[in-house]
Design a protein that fits this description.
Layout lengths: L20 H12 L4 H15 L1 E2 L10 H7 L1 E2 L1 H13 L1
Parallel strand pairs: 1-2
Length: 89
């Protein structure tokens, strides 16, 4: 729960970032490894970035994090949507 109303939108999943079960499991696994919030967030971003290939034409402007994660590829917005979905999970 955010401590500020201005941060509330940062923790809410959107249709573009909604994680699938595998993405949720990734979030839980990384969180269980310990470390502070900063370390956990960094590890999530590092893991997502390392697991996905930057490749145009695989996704479209309306693609979701679930679709990009399943393909393990996409462009900047796809990788960002996956990372945000896992971070918010």
């Amino acid at each position: 729960i955010p401590s500020s109303l201005s941060l509330a939108e940062c923790v809410t999943q959107t249709p573009a970032t909604m994680p699938d079960d595998e993405m949720r499991e990734l979030a839980l696994r990384i969180r269980a490894e310990g470390g502070g919030v900063d370390d956990t967030a960094f590890e999530i971003c590092r893991t997502v970035g390392g697991a996905m290939d930057y490749q145009s034409g695989v996704t479209g402007v309306n693609s979701t994090a679930r679709e990009a994660w399943a393909a393990r590829s996409g462009v900047c917005q796809d990788i960002a949507h996956v990372a945000l979905g896992v971070l918010r999970a």
